[in-house]
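Contributing new records

If you add data, match the layout below exactly. Sequence lines come first and carry their own label; structure lines follow with theirs. Keep one chain per record. Anything else will be rejected by the validation script.
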Amino acid sequence: MDDKTYSIELHDVTIDYTCHFSRRRTLAMEVKNGELVVRAPLGIGDREINRFLTSHATWILRTLNESRRKADAKEAAEGKFSDLEKQEIETEGRKRALWEIQKAIAEFQPRTGGEFKRISIKEQKTRWGSCSSNGTLSFHWKLIFAPKFVRDYVVVHELCHLTYMNHSEDFWNLVASVMPDYKIRRKWLKNHSTELSATYEPILYEAE
């Protein structure tokens, strides 16, 4: 695989990007860590790559701006509290998270069905919640800083995994039967995951 760095003008803005060449057949792109990455077939010409990027200029600029905004928010949040303050917030936050999640489980489990063995509150690196095959429900303690309607979605999602240990159509139908607007809640979590993982205080909900 051959990687090269290029620049392109999109709506009067100069965008640097890395292009990964491989034996793939089509062009693709993603924004990763605030940078544009293009994946292209071996032998493709610069003109075709530029045409591809120009046709997606609006998406590229919007996504880059959003990615960098989230990175700035994360940096600001991480520097707001001292290490000692963070430890104290986490200790109390774990207790509050367990209490709030227990209440949500009591509210929604009669509708989702399934039986769990225990609840675990921890700091998961890549997920806000998980359900193990032995019935352990795990939740990220920082869900306490998310709006309640988002925290409830994560709880319902994991409760439904007690019945379906997958993301099949049946699984999502069960989620929807309990929480018809789950897609709105899931979207908020997706859009604010970076900010939520970095913060040590509640995130105010704004309608999107």
